[in-house]
Amino acid sequence: MDDVEVRELRYFRAVAEELNFSRAAERLGMAQPPLSRAIRLLERRLGVQLFERTSRHVSLTPAGAVLLVESAKALEAVTAAVRRTRRAAQRTPALVVTAKPGVATDLLRRIADAHPDPVDLRVSGFGEQTEMLRDGRTDVAVLGCHGGTHHGLDVEVLFSEPRVAALPPGHELAGRSVLTCADFAGQPTPCWPLSSAADRAYWSGQDVTGGPVTPGPIVHDSAQLLEAVALGQAVALLPASVAELRSRDDVVYRPVVDATPYSLALAWPAGARDPRIARFVRTATEVSEALPRPGAVPAG
Length: 300
Description:
The protein is α/β, with parallel strands linked by helices. The chain is built from 11 helices and 12 strands. It has helices at residues 6-18, 21-28, 32-46, 62-88, 103-114, 129-134, 197-204, 206-209, 222-230, 240-245, 275-290; strands spanning 51-53, 58-60, 95-99, 119-123, 140-145, 153-161, 163-167, 189-191, 215-218, 236-239, 252-255, 262-269. The longest helix has 27 residues, at 62-88. The N and C termini lie far apart (68 Å).
């Protein structure tokens, strides 16, 4: 079998996502006949039929459905390779490191200050860190790690901390000194965009109880989350460090004795051989070990 070209995979994905050759050709900026020929050539090379075609309908075959999933991984790997190769060719290539705002970026600045190599710090949104690692936009990420797997990545946990409940002062649970995850049953909890079922269970405490998650408002950062809590729209489970940094009169924090801890970790592409990454991980470990561990809950 001849090698499949990246261009052909991009053509295939356009048709597979549009399920219409005319729209796919317009999206690719080309005429339809050469696109149809390219797909037929790809099918001949693979020895399989990728699409069922009629005069009114285009659909993926089982083989086409598999290629749709696998081609995404292949194209992501190619994109990452190109980005990292171009960065390596710079006169003084910097290690690109990303984290979401808050405790992670504060820690990242301390690590960068102590690190001997140039570091390019980039702030990212919730859940964007792993995607940025996989597509080559960043070399290392600081991310929350709560027991799930990070396929294709190596992970080094820097520290773990307890989680606390964030509640509006008038909430029925605010009068208790200590809570458990079972107390959150039926309580609406904020939802993060692109979060998985496991993420939603973890952030609502239902990973411990096994109960259903009651979705609350969608939030994009911790500031928006605390506003939702203050307005009585939701209750939330947060790392203790967030409670320490974001004390406010309209939100109270209470310990949750059985909540799964929150861990902050470094992640990088599995099998990476860049010595700068190894040095950065060593520096990060040394800096994080020297810092006081979060855990105290401010009164409120």
